[in-house]
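Blackboard transcription, Thursday session:
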Amino acid sequence: MLKVKTPKEVMEIIKSEFFPLENCEYVPLEEALGRVLSKDIKAEEFVPNFDRSTVDGWAVRACDSFGCSEAVPAELKIAGEVKMGEKPHFELKEGCCAQIPTGGALPQGADCVQMLEYSESYGDGSVGILKAAAPGQNLIRRGDDVYPGKRVLEKGRVLRPQDIGALAAMGVVSVPVAKRLKIGVISTGDELVTADKKPNYGEIRDVNGYAISALLREFGAEVIYYGIIKDSEELLLRWAEKALKDCDGLIISGGSSVGQKDGAEKVISAVGELLFHGIAVKPGKPTIMGKAGGKPVFGLPGHPAAAFLMTKLFVLPLLSVLMGRKDKEYCVSAVLSENISANHGRAEILSVRLKKEGSGMIAEPVRGKSGLISVLSSSDGYIIIERDREGLPAGSEVQVYLN
Amino acid sequence: MLKVKTPKEVMEIIKSEFFPLENCEYVPLEEALGRVLSKDIKAEEFVPNFDRSTVDGWAVRACDSFGCSEAVPAELKIAGEVKMGEKPHFELKEGCCAQIPTGGALPQGADCVQMLEYSESYGDGSVGILKAAAPGQNLIRRGDDVYPGKRVLEKGRVLRPQDIGALAAMGVVSVPVAKRLKIGVISTGDELVTADKKPNYGEIRDVNGYAISALLREFGAEVIYYGIIKDSEELLLRWAEKALKDCDGLIISGGSSVGQKDGAEKVISAVGELLFHGIAVKPGKPTIMGKAGGKPVFGLPGHPAAAFLMTKLFVLPLLSVLMGRKDKEYCVSAVLSENISANHGRAEILSVRLKKEGSGMIAEPVRGKSGLISVLSSSDGYIIIERDREGLPAGSEVQVYLN
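(Written on the board underneath:)
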């Protein structure tokens, strides 16, 4: 029998046994998308570095426009025209204005911009302003976006397109990011063949090697797939040792039960330290975690859905710790379509399909034996039913983790 | 003045003017993650192709176990042992059983498996079964996962890791996917400099070239960034023509207003057909859509947040049409932290930060002039306030689109 840990205990073990690797590298801005920022980014300049018009119009001194109206326009002398990308070489005196395009630099003396729509041209070198403008109106001030010392992006953030934009604005063209983790994946089982082979009776194609590798790649890791190793402790040990030399972590899929041929636990104990064997969760109970030279080693159930979900729930959070990655995780709220009974004593992970209904979402449990890859593939996400719940009635509001 | 379309009208134009390109290519399974499936995938085989035990135990004929208990075990003769990955070369006769590992093939004659835990060994070639088993118990039946003709994955799906697993299970190692779209990006504006330059007074760094390219890449497109083109209709036209030769679509950032130097509309009209100029949305109003030789051409506002949001709201959905991509979009429900006033006459896009509170989420509007890239970068998503709403009171439930 396995002495199981609760999911919460597993997360505590992950946080107490593993630490950020703090191995940073610099990548060009164009390649930084999806990488994990390894240093806080503070601005060193003002963005923009000048007061900027947000409209096409007239740069004016606000006080010159006070009290004007369509009936009684403020007549201002045109002192010049602001050119895009250039510093205006004139100063705005009392009673004067200057034409300014969207994005143009406000001339000295001016303190706001009035839109073209609220002006009339007199054709004699002067214009009438038809509506009063307030100081600061239609302007982005110097430093409104960022200013020196402002922390714009926080260490640990996974860089999104808008963050790439913010880095561009600040001129950060070489970006400090956590090095990509290199994770080894080994599938083990005498019954396994690669996806390109036609299985004989009694054989099945390896699913986990492909699905878990894809999950890790999607998460930003580099994956070395060592292929299918036969159920032999000696062979498995040799490959695990090799993988741990090459990689920052290792996942062994299959052989994680306590059966005769389930060598993962022994191999993990042989290469390092066994942290636990068994998690109180369904599917996924026979999951092993170990540590070898500070590197994580997982033994996952051969069962594809279990291996997949254990990777999502525990392997990726561990890799987050190693990379110093700070993710915000969001769930989609939905209403359960039917009653669900759950097992006592273990948290249960239930695959669901999401459907729009009115302004909300309905979560429909996906039928079929849990653990089939087709069940996982036809679902949009999963809900977690805590171990102390006997189940959930139809109509319950549930939080769906997206697949 | 722009004659604006509503967002709904824009979506209708996208759907009526553009069509799937139907240009498919085959990629190796290992490279199919995130690609758009271009054909339905139907199974051609049974997976698994045999009845498979889900536990370590004894393959039995259920009827031989009926009525047994711990007090009165069913004593069965051991007829053999099932080896992983092999077809059992014996048939189970009445009163017999066979040892079977998790994943082993059920021998002929047996119709279920009883767990090892519910048996006792007599050491004389027979075992006692301590609990009755029902036919089918602890089995995955042949074809339970997939069977010939079953549509497992639908055309248009963006392939997730679990879909890669399902393809592996079916032996699909060469995957039909929509070709990657190649999208050209041109930034225009005399005030722009590249991110590696220090802007002079009146200049700013190009943000859109980087942020929009990243957004398109994240969406799976290949991007050719043509750099910054000066505000010259002639130059812009020449580069737009070149880009449309190279690419499946073009985005021109900047020059989309109706100002003197805003040449995007003229250039789009010159290379093809102008579909509309102006969307009733804030920010993002001066957005242009055109079509040149069936290819989409967008003119986006230079304003970074507007350009970014218009790309999310309209460019990516259009690219989805071209790729035959069917996305499910999910929102996160949250409660608005404060009163929001909105403009009449235009839908408003409001950036928000999400915070956990209790079991729900709070959406906090991100302060700062809308449209600054730092506002976008410090937000987690956005809400859309429809044009017919004057605003939203604090405590409203809102749907947040994640950034």
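Lecturer's comment: Chain A has a mean pLDDT of 94.
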